[in-house]
Amino acid sequence: MLQDKIAQYTKEIEQFTPASAADVENFRLKFLVSKGIVKELFEEFKTVSSEEKRVLGKVLNEFKQLAETKFQESQTQFASAAKVHKREEEDLTLPGDGFQLGSRHPLSLVRKEIVEIFKKLGFIVAEGPEIEDDWHNFSALNFPPEHPARDMQDTFFIKKQEGNDIALRTHTSSVQVRLMEAGQPPFRAIMPGRVYRNEAISARAHCFFHQVEGLYVDENVSFADLKQTLFHFVQELYGEGTKVRFRPSYFPFTEPSAEMDISCSICKGAGCNLCKHSGWVEILGCGMVDPNVLENCGIDSKKYSGFAFGMGIERITNLKYEIKDLRLFSENDTRFLSQFETEII
Ligand SMILES: [Zn+2]
User: How far is CA 194 from the centre of its chain?
Assistant: First the structure.
């Protein structure tokens, strides 16, 4: 009798507790395939009287539902078990997937080193925009109207407008102007940043490079303070015993102005290609802030004085790592970059 068979199989399904994935598969083969029991009972259902059909139709559908649900539940149970099992079989002694750890860019390393040295002397870090107007980049810094640095040869102009051109800054001195305009002394700050010059790119020149400038303005600041600060700086950067010498120079924004040389860090003064056998290499320009610049920024030049200095980070980096081609800094060739210190942040 169909009804008895349904009752018997229902009991079997309800008691079915698979012990393995194979049991689940056997269950499927027994009940759910095209020649399985469910199909068989539906075939038999066609042969019963219409009176029985009315009663058994619902029962048979419920039986089918039960078989399918049981199968799905059992399958899920063993699918996750199979996954766990697979993990256990993985060979944990195999070498891992290698991935390359990045390294700090040499310019970032050197900038950080410079900033750290001046921070210890109480200098704060100041930053400003890379797109500047004529006032902040030139006029406030005492550049005469016909100064060659304003020429198209050197400056990337963005917008020419009468009296106040907009351009990419040619030095970070513009940040000094912004800093002084915003307050009153004392100022003790360094300004690291990228600057732009309209020059042909070669091993020795690039259209952009990086500077760190420094500014110290207070009462009674003298050239001796400038020398002592920079002397300390190079002892920290290149090691104790590094000699310095100052040569008179000219910059529109400082008076007097000087360029500072250090004893060659490569040959220690004995003479090599880097120092052109002189034993000295130039590393920065400096001087006492021109009183006109202080006045332009709203600072009383009779009460206050200050010094400023500026250096190219590329130049300092070249002296440290002997990098002969400036273009390497911006090509992002990993063969070059991976030679520098890896630092996990
Ligand atoms: Zn040398």
Answer: 15
Q: Render pLDDT for 125-176 as a digit per residue (tens, 0 to 9).
A: 999 999 999 999 999 999 888 887 777 668 888 988 877 889 999 999 999 9
- Specify burial of residue 269 (Cβ count, 10 A radius: 0-12, 13-18, 19+): middle
- Predicted structure pTM score: 0.69
3-state SS assignment for residue 255: strand
In this predicted model, what pLDDT tens digit does every residue of 6-26 receive, in sequence order?
Answer: 999 999 999 988 888 888 889
Measured between alpha carbons, how far is 336 from 16 in angstroms, rounded to an integer?
Answer: 67
316 C-alpha to ligand 1 centroid (Å): 14
Q: How far apart are CA 32 and CA 71, in angstroms?
A: 9
Kindly state the tokens that stand for 310. Answer: 């500026």
Closest CA to 70 of 17, 118, 148, 22: 17
* Residue 255 is labelled as binding a ligand: yes
Q: For residue 200, report the distance from its CA to the centre of ligand 1, in Å.
A: 27
Tokens 């290499």, residue?
281
CA of 263 to the centre of ligand 1 (A): 8
